[in-house]
Design goal:
two-stranded antiparallel sheet, two-stranded parallel ribbon, alpha+beta, single chain
């Protein structure tokens, strides 16, 4: 709110300038982190360009988990994936399930700890600040691996969190194990379902 002379529209000077940048990234359970920044929204053509950048110099097949963004499902994208002859496979997450996407954990970390926590100084560019932060994450494979310990993305590594059955819950403790289907409680040998 402000005030002004009667009959004259008041003008308010706003400091600073609004800046924006978009970014795409990919992570894997071994700690690798790939990213690219761009301007504007993501469409099929731009997504194919980003996929080509990511696939450059890859010798092994890549299985990429993506969300249901319309740009990920265009004919252009399908044609490009088919042209890789099995070197690239896209796996789509169910709708409205960001907790299943490990890449969302990276962006949550960026928002909690990075550029959004400190205002830009005069003459400072948002794009440079974001690129510096993403480059720093790329150099921290231990941090990237830590994201995959979150129970909601354990399906990727096979690392599931289980607990002892209710009869032994007071004396039992949480433990992690490489498990395929079921585990038995050490106390009574009853089958216990996974707790995700």
């Amino acid at each position: 709110k402000t005030w002004g002379k009667k009959g004259q529209t008041s003008v308010i000077a706003r400091p600073g300038q609004r800046q924006s940048i978009s970014a795409a990234s990919a992570v894997n359970a071994k700690g690798a982190f790939w990213y690219s920044t761009y301007q504007g929204g993501l469409n099929g053509q731009l997504f194919v360009k980003l996929l080509k950048q990511m696939m450059r110099n890859r010798t092994k097949p890549v299985h990429l988990v993506v969300d249901g963004l319309p740009a990920h499902k265009t004919k252009l994208v399908k044609d490009y994936v088919a042209s890789t002859k099995g070197r690239l496979t896209l796996h789509f997450l169910p709708g409205y399930a960001p907790e299943l996407n490990p890449d969302e954990l990276v962006w949550s970390h960026v928002k909690r700890t990075g550029a959004s926590r400190t205002p830009l100084r005069k003459g400072e560019k948002l794009s440079e600040k974001i690129k510096m932060q993403l480059a720093a994450i790329k150099k921290m494979p231990r941090l990237v691996r830590a994201f995959f310990k979150t129970p909601s993305v354990a399906y990727i590594t096979g690392q599931l969190v289980i607990r002892r059955c209710s009869r032994h819950s007071r004396s039992g403790s949480w433990r992690c194990a490489r498990i395929r289907r079921r585990s038995r409680c050490r106390g009574c040998r009853r089958h216990q379902a996974h707790q995700w």
